[in-house]
Amino acid sequence: MNQTEIGKFIARCRKEKKLTQVQLAEKLNITDRAVSKWETGKSMPDSSIMLELCEILGITVNELLSGEEINMESYEKKADENLIALKKKDENNMAKNVIISMLFSASLLIGIMVCCICNIAISGNLTWAQIPVSSIVFAWVIIFPGIILGKKGIFVSFISLSVFVIPYLFLLSRLIKVKEVFSIGAVMAAVSIVFLWIIAAVYHRIGKTRKLTAMGIIFLLFIPFIFVINGLLSKMIAEPVMDVWDMLTVSILLILAFTAFICDYAKNNGFIK
Fold first, then answer.
1. Fewer CB atoms near the end CB (10 Å): N or C, the chain?
2. pLDDT, tens digit, for every residue of 21-50?
3. Percentage of residues in the chain with pLDDT exceeding 90?
4. Secondary structure, 3-state, 153-180
5. What's the maximum distance between 2 C-alpha atoms anywhere in the chain?
6. Integer Cα distance of 210 and 30 in angstroms
7. What pLDDT does residue 206 have?
8. How far apart are CA 41 and CA 72, in angstroms?
9. 124-139, pLDDT tens digit by residue?
10. Beta-carbon neighbour count of residue 257 at 10 Å?
11. Closest CA to 260 of 212, 202, 195
12. Residue 2 CA from chain centroid, whole number
């Protein structure tokens, strides 16, 4: 597959359908920047939207991957070539992810070994090493899926974080013998996890087509998050609900949200590109 030729073919078909990059992007619920990258040969359409893209452009997937219109005589040959090329691309991406994940795992394993060796050499047994080791294992469980599975692994990493963060805080509180790490940390973690899932939902729903709008909404969502976190902390450790730094943070978030909405409006009305 020649990405440059595929990009030119997409651009030609789009123009034949009298669509702008922005219009095509809106139909696919993606950004016009993604369409631009396709047409310049910098990237390929994701397999999840190929069928929809081909339907909009009035072409087949085989023609899309070939970067040209195909007559019936050469259709089967081109189809086989494209399937082989896609398979090789997927295999190459998977192989790259496996290598990176193995290097990442090996680095963490070395870190664990260094901690244990140093702890035994100094104290004669495992004492403080259990703390960094448990933290390293927790980091591996969260990050590893995102590395080996690519974009699909981000969702798995989110689930891992949601499932394991509270057990990790419980273990950590037992290791350092400070019960507040769990009693306070678990509440903060639960609220933060809910907030992260809300952000993910907003970005998934809006961010593909209106990235600036999604950013503005996320900035606004940070404000009630700050109030909730501070309110909970004030009850648990007798801290003031809001201080001058919190108010400054809220002001900055409002400015950032307003700026994002203005830029999005200007972009969608042709004032800026």
1. C
2. 888 888 887 888 888 888 888 888 877 788
3. 36
4. HHHHHHHHHHHHHHHHHHHHHHHHCCCH
5. 78
6. 8
7. 83
8. 26
9. 888 889 999 999 999 9
10. 20
11. 212
12. 27
Q: Name the burial class of residue 152, with classes exposed (0-12), middle (13-18) and buried (19+) by CB atoms within 10 angstroms of its CB.
A: exposed
Site of tokens 């976190």: 229
DSSP 96-143: HHHHHHHHHHHHHHHHHHHHHHHHHHHHSS-STTHHHHHHHHHHHHHH
Cα 248 to Cα 226: distance, rounded to the nearest angstrom: 12
Q: What is the pTM of this model?
A: 0.67
What number is the average pLDDT over the span 210-238?
88
More confident position, 195 or 7:
195
Q: What are phi and psi of 151, to 5 degrees?
A: -60, -35
Q: Is the pLDDT assigned to residue 175 strictly greater than 80? A: yes
Tokens of 216: 């503005």
Q: How far apart are CA 177 and CA 179, in angstroms?
A: 6
Q: What is the pLDDT of residue 71?
A: 59
Helices 130-149 and 151-176 cross at an angle (nearest 10°) of 170
Tokens linked to 79 = 């189809």
CB 272 within 8 A of CB 262: no
Instruction: Return the closest-CA partner of residue 135 out of 101, 173, 183.
Output: 173
The secondary structure of the chain in percent helix, strand, coil, rounded to multiples of 5, reads 80, 0, 20
Hey, what are 130's tokens?
Answer: 């259990």
Position of tokens 């503005």?
216
